[in-house]
């Protein structure tokens, strides 16, 4: 899959393409539908199926105080898009200047002239251009006979529209099981193992302290997980704790993972942590002994859950992205 870092960089290389447009945070089943249609439309012509997306997320520029935490890092997003069978992704830099692009310029300059699009695929709620003045109807009018616009309706699960916003909400609440139902796979946190305080080792339950690259974090609590570790094959089961360790009076929020049947120095290793199920909320215990007893119960439960979900092909280690 080719990755272009602007429409200008992709110029003259995508002529005749079918392009889907959007932020595509998380690459969920609603996004799958758009990408599937782009592939179907491009194949009879022998042209490319492309995604035009924006980096950073427009909300980070337009409303930084209200910008949502992203479900996936950019490397994770690109991995998921490549798995969709796309030929190319255009990562258009989004800044204040680009936010001022008129709907006419976006369609004529970027889509038709810059990318040579012949089919344009968007979601039912797509908006574009300065002040979000463009809609699918405006897009179709501006494209005229040069390109055909295809508007895809919402994808639903049990009557609920699948959206990045709803997935974020579920993860933030710690409801990682329902979030996985909407995502089509478990939520994954990417990060690097860094030194911690070593308390896990002292109480007989060593943990890897993960500095997350992923912006979105599940609610504080204990989770059953499967983990990909840099330099190791496949994934291993584990139990993760997100929280401030109230039993010890700590204030710093940490992400710690105990890996089952792994005895290795993991400092500096990259990890991908797939959250399978929340076991309990964070608790303060009366003593360290009471905490340790509960941790062992958590480990037994997490081991059983992780053992039932060993096949997670997209849970692989991703490097931090360098522009």
UniProtKB/TrEMBL annotation:
Enzyme superclass (EC): transferase
Keyword list, A-Z: ATP-binding, FAD, Flavoprotein, FMN, Kinase, Multifunctional enzyme, Nucleotide-binding, Nucleotidyltransferase, Transferase
Cross-referenced SUPFAM superfamilies: Nucleotidylyl transferase, Riboflavin kinase-like
BP term (GO), one: FAD biosynthetic process
One Pfam family this sequence matches: FAD_syn
InterPro entries, A to Z: FAD_synthase, Riboflavin_kinase, Riboflavin_kinase_bac, Riboflavin_kinase_bac/euk, Riboflavin_kinase_dom_sf, Rossmann-like_a/b/a_fold
Pathway assigned to this chain's UniProt record: Cofactor biosynthesis; FMN biosynthesis; FMN from riboflavin (ATP route): step 1/1; Cofactor biosynthesis; FAD biosynthesis; FAD from FMN: step 1/1
Tree of life domain: Bacteria
Enzyme nomenclature, EC number: 2.7.1.26, 2.7.7.2
Boundaries of every Riboflavin kinase domain copy: 182-307
GO MF annotations, alphabetized: ATP binding; FMN adenylyltransferase activity; riboflavin kinase activity
Annotated catalysed reactions: FMN + ATP + H(+) = FAD + diphosphate; riboflavin + ATP = FMN + ADP + H(+)
CDD domains recorded: FAD_synthetase_N
Role this protein plays: Catalyzes the phosphorylation of riboflavin to FMN followed by the adenylation of FMN to FAD.
Family the entry assigns: Belongs to the ribF family.
NCBIfam families associated with the record: PRK05627.1-3, PRK05627.1-5, ribF
Protein's recorded name: Riboflavin biosynthesis protein
Lineage of producing organism: Bacteria, Pseudomonadati, Myxococcota, Myxococcia, Myxococcales
């Amino acid at each position: 899959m080719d990755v272009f870092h602007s429409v200008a960089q992709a110029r003259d290389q995508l002529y005749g393409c079918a392009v889907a447009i959007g932020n595509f945070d998380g690459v969920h089943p609603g996004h799958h539908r758009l990408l599937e249609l782009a592939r179907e439309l491009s194949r009879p012509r022998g042209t490319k199926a492309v995604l035009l997306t924006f980096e950073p997320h427009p909300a980070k520029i337009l409303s930084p105080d209200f910008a949502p935490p992203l479900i996936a890092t950019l490397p994770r997003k690109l991995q998921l898009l490549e798995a969709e069978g796309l030929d190319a992704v255009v990562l258009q830099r989004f800044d204040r200047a680009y936010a001022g692009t008129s709907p006419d310029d976006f369609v004529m300059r970027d889509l038709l002239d810059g990318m040579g699009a012949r089919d344009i695929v968007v979601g039912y709620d797509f908006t574009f251009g300065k002040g979000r003045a463009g809609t699918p109807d405006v897009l179709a009018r501006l494209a005229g006979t040069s390109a055909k616009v295809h508007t895809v309706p919402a994808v639903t699960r049990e009557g609920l529209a699948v959206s990045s916003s709803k997935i974020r909400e579920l993860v933030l609440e710690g409801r990682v099981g329902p979030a996985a139902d909407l995502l089509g796979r478990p939520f994954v946190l990417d990060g690097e193992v860094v030194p911690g305080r070593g308390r896990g080792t002292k109480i007989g339950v060593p943990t890897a302290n993960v500095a997350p690259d992923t912006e979105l974090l599940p609610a504080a609590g204990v989770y059953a997980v499967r983990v990909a570790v840099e330099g190791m094959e496949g994934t291993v089961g584990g139990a993760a704790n997100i929280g401030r360790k109230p039993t010890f009076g700590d204030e710093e929020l940490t992400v710690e993972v105990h890996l089952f049947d792994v005895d290795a120095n993991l400092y500096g290793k990259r990890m991908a942590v797939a959250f399978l199920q929340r076991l309990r909320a964070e608790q303060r215990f009366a003593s360290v002994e009471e905490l340790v007893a509960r941790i062992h119960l958590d480990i037994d439960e997490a081991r059983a859950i992780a053992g039932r979900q060993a096949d997670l092909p997209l849970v692989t280690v991703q490097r931090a992205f360098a522009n």
